[in-house]
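hey all, quick one before standup. I had two proteins in the batch that finished overnight and I want to keep them in one place so we stop losing track of which output belongs to which input. First protein below, input sequence then structure tokens straight from the run.
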Amino acid sequence: MAKKNYMEILKASTKLGLTSFGGPTAHLGYFREEYVVKRKWLDDKAYADLVALCQFLPGPASSQVGISVGMLRGGIFGGFLSWFGFTMPSVILLVLFAMLVSNASFDSGWIHGLKIVAVAVVAHALMGMGKSLAPDLPRIALAVAAAAAILLVPTAWAQIAVIVLAGIFGYYMYRKEKAPEAVKLALTFGRKTGIAAWTIFAALLVGLPLLRPFFESALYAIFDIYYRVGSIVFGGGHVVLPMLEREVVPGWMGPDVFISGYGAAQAVPGPLFTLAGYLGQIMSGGWGAVIAVIAMFLPSFLLVIGTLPFWSVIRTKSGVQAALKGVNAGVVGILLAALYDPVFTSGIRGPVDFAIAITAFAMLVYFKLAPWVVVLVTAILGAMSYAFL
């Protein structure tokens, strides 16, 4: 029976990994259709609770929902299979693209087109996140303040400080609001396993940077960078952009190469965190890609395993939910700052580029075209503008 479940999980998640275009919100819709409506592995109430859990945790929400569904269906190994099927198609495509970019003969005009499409994609993501995560004046003000702080102090530590301060603000503003009731989830592991996962998560988060000076290894540095970023990114895949940019540009690559990878990631299905595969390949070849992807998603596994057994308790704590509201508003500010630097400053050279960017934005927002279509059209237009202007 277990083997049958494992094959079902791998088959379903791989199908989603090959067809789930459109970003985290769209992924959650695809997941519901596949896991709740079609396969009936769980009901809508349990699915909604998993979504709430994964929005509460740092990391890629859609990937964590997939991991959680896999764990409910087939234990911890089921969670791994669910992640593997959903993630690998995107990783493979982006690693291949990184190998193409590394080739000196690759036309830089296409790179420029991908940088332009990143402007439209981040603006679109910012608009959607702003509506859901900063819907009232206090949170709008918090998002604007967070953006200003990040632009004035452009460091990785400033981003962490913004998230912490935003959480404190959210706690004091919204702590009196009632938290929703939780749904009981059937798990194959308990609280001891959860505590062990949290212990490993914390030990790696603290220990990796402390030990890094003693290991003169590019692969160790890659593991440290991507594990840290994967541990502290709230708000979904787009927010990974500014955090990774602070870590790898200009030390490991130029801004052009970085932003072009982000643009390419919009054209492939699956989670945006697979950008780690592209960046790891650029940084240190095949092993760099493997290490970067593992390190990027490892915190998600540990956090899901660590939190699921306790979620029925955490879910009912109004203070925790209030702090999360502040954190999410701060995340909108971080993404707003990223829209200017590095996305706009790297991608837009003049009026023609801006005209292409707003055309791409309109195709995404108003004409509702598939992201891969928008990426392809914008890449062609960007390459033409690069060649003739």
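OK second protein, same deal, sequence then tokens:
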Amino acid sequence: MGYDDQVTKNIVNAGRIGRSIAGFVAIAAAATLAAQTVSDGQDVPGANLNLPGNPTIFGKLDPNIRKPTAIVNDTVLTGTDVDQRMALIVALNDYKLTAEDREVLRAQVVRQLIDETLQIQQAKAKDITVTPAELEQSFNRLAKQRFNQTPEQLRAYLRTAGSSERSLRRQIEGELAWSRLLRRQVEPFVNVGEEEVAAVIKRMEESKGTEEYSLREIYMAATPDRAPEVQGAMQKMIEQIRQGAPFEYFARNFSEASTRAVGGDLGFVRLNMLPDALQRAATQMQVGQIAGPIEVPGGYSILYLADKRQVLMADPRDAKLALRQLFLPFAPGTTEAQASAKVAAFTEATQAIRGCGDATKIAQAQKAEVVDNDSVVLRSLPPALQDIILKLNVGQATPPFGSPKDGVRVLILCGREDPRTAGIPSAAQIQQGLEQERVNLRAQRMMRDLRRDAVIEYR
């Protein structure tokens, strides 16, 4: 797959800025870099600005007045541009937004479109352009790879969602132009020496067996007088996240840590890199759990534990599974009482399963669909299912799970290949990961400079 192919394959997501550092680099970085969490008062956002604690505001700002359009260095962003990009994000992520959430998303989209415009403008200034033919090719490839549709079907889907082909093409152009600019202006000047790679390998060997936590964080600064307000806001976030709202959505829009651009992702870190309060919280959490608000120096944090592992040790969650799924769908119009009765009968039947060979017969009796997958990595399953399947023997089934809307499922463990002891990545892999990390850092600096130099007029 070419570089541009990879860009278009992953192009549609809520924030457009993803974490592209390989896991082994995160292990190495954990040995030397501080976590992106506020650790003392000097790191509090705005601390070096010498701001007054209770400023007097001169002038008037009406929070009800929104400015959804902008002119960025003479390039006009219209209200239609904003509306259509918002519609695309909401449709693809199946967001259920309140009026307040929608306004927050609108502000985020405006910032995203401004950054996208600056990237395209900078690429053109360096004689880098994306041709109409390349856009057409990327759009068609995206329709097949991301949506499993023909280009015509994708155009119809975008119109139905309230977006447009033009909006998606604009995003593709921004991604391609920026990636090509980085390849020309940044990547040739990024070098990683053999000594650096050797040092990383040494640190990994010294860290073997230590436990690391994959954490995501939302941090908000708070002075003592604002503490109740911040805590209340965070409690509402936690409630919405537990109800299914994406953690990354709140991290990108509300977190004041440097990790907001990557959805609050701290990567894999060791506990001694975190403030004491976050250390205590992380040790008490199970994978998939959320905790907070947690008081830390300068404010409060919300933590989400995405994963745990031991450096260079085999992890049971890396086992490859052969699974057989029994799926019982509910016909449209099924009442709650009817669904409950079907679930009860399905539960009784599936708990009597004795091996995968027995599952097909029970599926036929229950009029359930059967799907096999022989290459499921345990870690890729939802955390709650991981914990259940870890305790299963071959031939046993999970309890039924699902919803009246999506139907009910049962997974039967047909086979399991446990992972071998993890080995150290190759020197070439480590070098590639370190180079990509440095490219990302330089790209962030470039964007910072472009924003500072931009002339932006809101209308």
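Flagging for whoever picks this up: Residues 99-125 form the longest helix (27 residues). Residues 35 and 274 are 6 Å apart (CA to CA).
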